[in-house]
Amino acid sequence: MVFFSMFCCAKGSNGKGKEKPTWRTFSLKELHSATNNFNYDNKLGEGGFGSVYWGQLWDGSQIAVKRLKVWSDKAEMQFGVEVEILARVRHKNLLSLRGYCAEGQERLIVYDYMPNLSLLSHLHGQHSAECLLDWDRRMNIAIGSAEGIVYLHNQATPHVIHRDIKASNVLLDSDFQARVADFGFAKFIPDGATHVTTRVKGTLGYLAPEYAMLGKASEGCDVYSFGILLLELVSGKRPVEKISSTAKRTVVQWALPLTCDGKFNEIADPRLNGKFVEEELKRVVLVALVCAQTRPEKRPTIMEVVELLKGNLKEKLIAIENDEMFRTLYAPVTQSQSGDHDNSSHISEENEIEEVQQHK
Ligand SMILES: Nc1ncnc2c1ncn2[C@@H]1O[C@H](COP(=O)(O)OP(=O)(O)OP(=O)(O)O)[C@@H](O)[C@H]1O
Ligand SMILES: [Mg+2]
């Protein structure tokens, strides 16, 4: 029983002396009653490993319940990993665990409900027409989610690689503060190791090429995905767009030539109506593009990303601005184009991902 051995370990790390546990177990009956028997109307969405339902407990507090859909050894492992990691991590920009339920074949994870749902819902989903994300909120979300990842990479013990940074995994609380969610894909990095080789998991459009092709997961992969997320956040574009019946374009391929030409204003989400701080926009775009570059050794650390986004590390920002990647002349994008940010790596990513999703 993978889950229970992991759980014991998590409980040990949680239950220091008389400290009050921050999470508890829930009965299936309690969760049935909180979610109106997992009613379809309560469903917040569905991911690779199950559905998420809104619920309300007897004390009036609102919860989100993730119900794993298929029972398998893989799901057991997923559940164990997520519960153990979530039980350990506490940070203002990470979604906290409220508890779990393991009864019979059912495995459920209980979180705080995030009333402003996910970044995805504001950029491309049910809230996208409401334009609730003004520039200040976007900057806050960028910095806050980066700080959450800094905690995972540098402060959690042992360090954690998230491996699935994307817009649906950045949730927004009642003040639109970012909470990075979903540590189910996370993997502990042993001390001293530079990367762990693993089967590729993740989401189309966000995967670092070295991870998609060689299975090398490192902090740099999260930085790459975060770069894509930043571009999505400022532009309102999806990570990959269909530009014709045969061709696709990544958000990097779209934004890089505009950046080389200094046309930052054209990158800004039209829903901002021109209301943004130009200097900040430029900073975010430059940082996003250095994060999402093919060569992992050239990417900044997430700690540097936080400082850069805050407007610190001015010299580093100037060096980034003068980087050769922003001086390359770009031909119009076609599917066969090659280069540092070429399509070929992304096409490989897509192939990998399609394969992975079939395994889900
Ligand atoms: N605590 C929460 N509060 C509000 N909405 C949530 C909460 N947890 C998850 N959601 C939303 O529920 C939906 C399903 O989440 P889930 O994590 O299962 O899938 P996903 O993020 O789309 O994909 P993946 O399985 O790859 O993580 C998402 O839209 C997510 O933003
Ligand atoms: Mg998720």
Automatic annotation (TrEMBL):
Any one Pfam family match given in the protein's UniProt record, by short name: Pkinase
Region named Disordered: 334-360
UniProt keyword terms in alphabetical order: ATP-binding, Kinase, Nucleotide-binding, Serine/threonine-protein kinase, Transferase
Occurrences of domain Protein kinase (ranges): 38-318
Family annotation (InterPro entries): Kinase-like_dom_sf, Prot_kinase_dom, Protein_kinase_ATP_BS, Ser/Thr_kinase_AS
Domain of life, source organism: Eukaryota
Any GO molecular function: ATP binding
Biased composition (Acidic residues): 350-360
Biased composition regions of type Basic and acidic residues, renumbered to the chain: 339-349
Signal peptide feature range: none
Binding site for ATP: K66
Similarity annotation: Belongs to the protein kinase superfamily.
Protein name in the entry: Protein kinase domain-containing protein
